[in-house]
Amino acid sequence: MKPEILEVQPLELKFTFELKKQSSCYVQMTNKTNHHVAFKIKTTNPKKYCVRPNAGVIDPNAPCEFEVTMQAPKVAPPDMISRDKFLVQSTIVPEGTQEEDVTSSMFAKEEGKIVDEKKLKVLLISPPGSPESSPKNEPLMVVHSSESRELKDEIIQKNNSHATVDESMKVSEVDGEREEVPKKEEFFERKEAVKKIEEPVKPSQEVAKRNEEFKQINNTDELILAKDVEEMKSKLKELESQLIEAKATILNLSEDKRSVAEEKHCLQGELEMVRSKKHRAQVGFPLLFVFMVGLVSFYLGHLLHS
């Protein structure tokens, strides 16, 4: 048997179930050791519940409390039975361990390491005053509305006949004493029977009313959901149109970039041609100048000799 590290109370989380309303409950934990104990709380349905705090460190022989909040439900589960469960894990840690140091790996089951686990169940409770939570002292028969009306009319007719007989009878005097011949106890008993017959009809009407409310809530939820879907579709269409425009803009920019690159390449080629022609002109000019100077010199020398 593993030693118990934490004492957890209660082991059943009770939530008052009401549509579109949150419900919370508190769980008390007590460290039963002389060491610091780290704890972590897990659940099978993390989207449905909020646990604060869901991890931490408890001082030796000290208590600690955490709160579990059930999110507002939209649909009632069948037979008001929840299959959600919670798991409270605990293990001994060194002194000085902080809440942010608690990780899931600390609760891995290894040889020589003690990990205590407590499983908690979830119970759904109807709110006070609802038909499901109202006590029933005696069993009631389920009678159809048509049958209950016929039986009610029959009993009322009998009661009326007894009432007329009671009113028509007189009180006789015997030796100065007044004696009432008939008694009206049967009338009240039959009246109580009528009430008992009417009682089963009321819960059925209340159930029908609640079913109508559930249908209205479901219809409103479906309308809201359909509206949200339509809004999402319109937003997706807008995003698609914007994406198409962005693609067209990117294509135009890429074409412009390519044309600019081609023009730049052409300009560079033309610039290279101009530079080569200029270089050739500079190389040819000195040779011509030397040739002309030599020709003029030769002519002048010929004139001087002659």
UniProtKB/TrEMBL annotation:
Q: Which GO terms describe its cellular component?
A: endoplasmic reticulum membrane; plasma membrane
Which BP terms in the Gene Ontology apply to this protein?
endoplasmic reticulum membrane organization; endoplasmic reticulum-plasma membrane tethering
Ranges for domain MSP come to 1-125
Q: Which organism is it from?
A: Deinandra increscens subsp. villosa
Keyword annotations for this protein, in alphabetical order, are: Coiled coil, Membrane, Transmembrane, Transmembrane helix
What protein name applies here?
MSP domain-containing protein
Q: Which family does it belong to?
A: Belongs to the VAMP-associated protein (VAP) (TC 9.B.17) family.
PANTHER family, per database record? MAJOR SPERM PROTEIN (MSP), VESICLE-ASSOCIATED MEMBRANE PROTEIN-ASSOCIATED PROTEIN
Spell out the coiled coil positions from the record. 222-256
Question: Is Ligase a UniProt keyword of this protein?
Answer: no
Residues that span the membrane, as ranges:
283-304
